[in-house]
Amino acid sequence: MIPIRPAPSGPEDAGLFEVRRKIYPRAVHGVFARWRWSLVWATQLFFYGMPWLSWNGRPALLFDLGARKFYVLGFVFWPQDFIYLTLLLVISALSLFLFTAVAGRLWCGYACPQTVYTEIFLWIERKTEGERSAREKLDREPMSVRKFVLKAAKHLSWGTLAFWTGFTFVGYFTPIRQLAMEFVTTALGPWEAFWILFYAAATYANAGFMREQVCKYMCPYARFQGAMFDRDTLVIAYDPLRGEPRGARSRQSDPKALGLGDCIDCTLCVQVCPTGIDIRKGLQYECIGCAACIDACDQVMDKVGYPKGLIRYATENAIARRAGLEGFLAHVARPRTFIYAAILGGVCVLAGTALFLRVPLKVDVIRDRGALVREVEDGELENVYRLQVMNATEEAHRYRLKVEGVPGLRVASDAEFVVEAAATRGFPVRLRAPRGALANGSHPIRISVDSFDTTAVNVTEKSVFIVR
């Protein structure tokens, strides 16, 4: 008779989903920790400071969706400038391919908003609740006045930072000084209030609670990065040829005599990992490349008197061949990185040239289809057009209208006009030509608009003059 095992229940029932084990990352100090915090400071100074930076009386970086204008330093972009956004996205994608092929997940480990805000939220958690062991102990304790006060202080700090983050985010779409005044006077619009709270809630949840789950389950980059890695990609790697077999030993003992490698199995590399993986098991998709394990392992190697670099930035080929510095550098010089770099450089040159040659004037000409042609005084024929002129600079300009292509063609309406800074002006234009000089049909013409201020600003559009 075969015994029947009861169906597992509770935490042991992991049919589809693994029960999450809360991770308490240990604080670590070292070269790469300083690099991470340098990037935290740089990215957050930019993010929180840029909306307050003024340029020509308005924010230096403002995406005014209502007016369909994007202000980027001294440039004004309109929906018609979509090509520049396309080039920016292409450059970002190619940069991602190049940097990942060369050095793995640099973006994830140092500059990704999820990594940056998780680092900040963890710092707040350590300051309020203590280091790793203290936080674990506090979570196991029953609720008390002390625990309530510590948790409340942490969540209040998280909430304040998350709200300020949401407020700053909306400040990129609504001038932040205006937004601050609306907030103080409780005059925030419904959409502004919604996006402030939405972005604040997303920051609070992602950096405070979900943390590594965003990287492991939600972020697509962790999944497709494997397609961009090869054995010559620089990744964070454990050297098993040097570290195995691992095991504890006294500081005075000789590891070779004990038949042990350099790894003392202290597990500090696991304790400092924000995603909770063991880097000694090899490259894993959960590794975000933050290099916290390198700092932790190097400190241990210093204490026991072994050479640093048991865990280090290296390539799989370099570790397998026991290559030194030459193996560290040789991985860059391969066709894949040269191709990525050449394409990226070409697109950057193309984007820079296009931006440098960009004419800050756009003109659209539309014939008035309600009145194709009419005869006016002196026997002249008149066609009416709708002219739409867009001034893509932050200064008002005076423009002049010229026409050519048909003998005797002239502008019968005002040939000079002013368009205000970063504004669009539409108005009718009447063109006349003598009847006797033209045959029936449509005749191609050119309508030019140029600026009085600079001869370099000139736009010519093609149209037709109808004769009946």
What does this structure look like?
With 468 residues, this protein is an alpha+beta fold. The protein is built from 17 helices and 16 strands. Strands 8, 9, 10, 12 and 14 form a five-stranded antiparallel β-sheet that branches. A four-stranded antiparallel β-sheet has the order 13-11-15-16, with no helix packed on it. Helix 2 (82-103) runs antiparallel to helix 17 (335-356) and helix 4 crosses helix 8. The chain starts with 30 loop residues before the first helix and ends with a strand. Mean pLDDT is 88; it is low at 1-15.
Task: List the keywords.
five-stranded antiparallel β-sheet; Immunoglobulin-like; disordered N terminus; 468 residues; 16 strands; four-stranded antiparallel β-sheet; 42% helix; alpha+beta; elongated
